[in-house]
Amino acid sequence: MGETFFQPLSHLDASVLALESPTTHMHVAAVAIFEANALSDGKGGIDLDRIRAHIEGKLQYIPRYRQRLAYVPVTRAPVWIDDQQFDLDFHLRYVRLPHPGSDDQLRRMAGRIVSQKLDRSRPMWELWLVEGLARDRFAVIAKIHHCMIDGVAGVDLTTILLNVVPTSDIEPAAPWEPRPAPTGTDLAVTSAARTTRRIFDLMTSWREISTRGSEIAAAMAGRAQAAFESLGSGWLTSASRTPLNPDLGLNRRFDGVELSLDRVKTVRRKTGGSINDLVLTIATGAIRRYLLERGFKLKGVEFRAMVPVSTRSAAEPGSMGNQVAMWLVNLPVSEPDPLTRLDTIRKETTRLKDDNHALGAATLVDLSRGTPIPLIYFANRVVGPKMRPFNITITNVPGPQFPMYLLEARMLSNYPMVPLWSQHGLSLALFSYDGKLLWGILADYDAIPDTGRVTHAIEEAFSELEAAVAPDEQGSPVG
């Protein structure tokens, strides 16, 4: 018998697990749409066996997809172990849309799929292959627990499963033998040894401080200042409650909208700032429209977005797990002028960069690493619902600006989804791909009964911003 294997979850990934509740599903998802091309059977179906073989051949590059959770006795700290009964067919699901196979039917199906929690006794991912989509297309609905993956790592997985050119080649599946799982005693003893090691490392760090005191003290002071600035950005106070912040139900709705990336870049050239500044400005305009239509008074409202910022280095692009920090960005939803909204957001994100809030948020995570898992769970259940420091999650992940292929099938679009936190009825996730800025909309089923209204608000908010920067007859920007 080989040596046993387990790997502790990072503190951030363990916290993601602790955040999950019956109404808070902590999986990320995406709906990718493909031209069937050579994978088509000519009857609205696709060659599922070839796709399965292709995925099986790629599992060797993503070992986490064959690992499941186990827990250290007493502390309940989660660890990864190899799944002794791994069965690929459990994770690959096949479904066919009824005639006519419309995009609306696909959206409704995606909403139902993401409404269901993942099975924690198995590797926490599913791929749904959806046949019968009109115009000789098919879809892949991916669902992966957030403790396994963040948005940037998700792009890495896309590069593993997709190719830059169409190909019929399928990589043979490599032999795989699960490593033996440790016993509860093994986990307890090894966990205690690692705790002792952390204490030893801390003592070593203090000795290092005594010899490199001024250099290390300056670095620690910088991190402490960044953490202080991050806390002061709103993490310790509640944002305003709005119709977008209900008590969540079990079910979800999905929708998506596509904007031209070239048109967005044209606006950026005229206004300055970053693509992310424009994304936040468009989202602000859309939220403003939606809340006004619901009859909500915006005067005095403090509406904040939690914006993930990747801390993944260039040297670790393919590593699994979450390596992100969080910004809190105040969105000026009460401001009627789109250019003023953009200027306000641009100043806000510049301040967050200058004050190094991403480092500060990462430092706060580091400082909380010693917190026992049961205490994290308690804090999330008791303190979390009462303290709502932000109203919405908005995440923007850059993707390839050229076509990608699943075997011979060209990917047309890919709409991401991020989880709804407690009392957050809407999240916006964006993926730029092949000249498109693709918005994935996830909503609480009861709180947002018409996600189409949200997609229209996004389109209208962009058109409003675009019109505000259009040149007048003298060639100068309007507004």
How would you describe this protein?
The protein is an alpha+beta fold and 479 residues long. The protein is 38% helix and 22% strand. The protein contains 13 helices and 15 strands. The protein has a 6-stranded mixed β-sheet, sandwiched between helices. Strand 3 (67-71) and strand 4 form a beta hairpin. Helix 6 (184-211) crosses helix 7 and helix 9 packs across helix 10 (338-354). The chain is globular and about 65 Å long. It starts with 6 loop residues before the first strand and ends in an 11-residue tail after the last helix. The model is unreliable at 196-206, 219-228, 312-322, 357-384 and 472-479 (pLDDT under 50).
Please give a handful of descriptors for the protein shown.
479 residues; alpha+beta; six-stranded mixed sheet; 15 strands; disordered C terminus
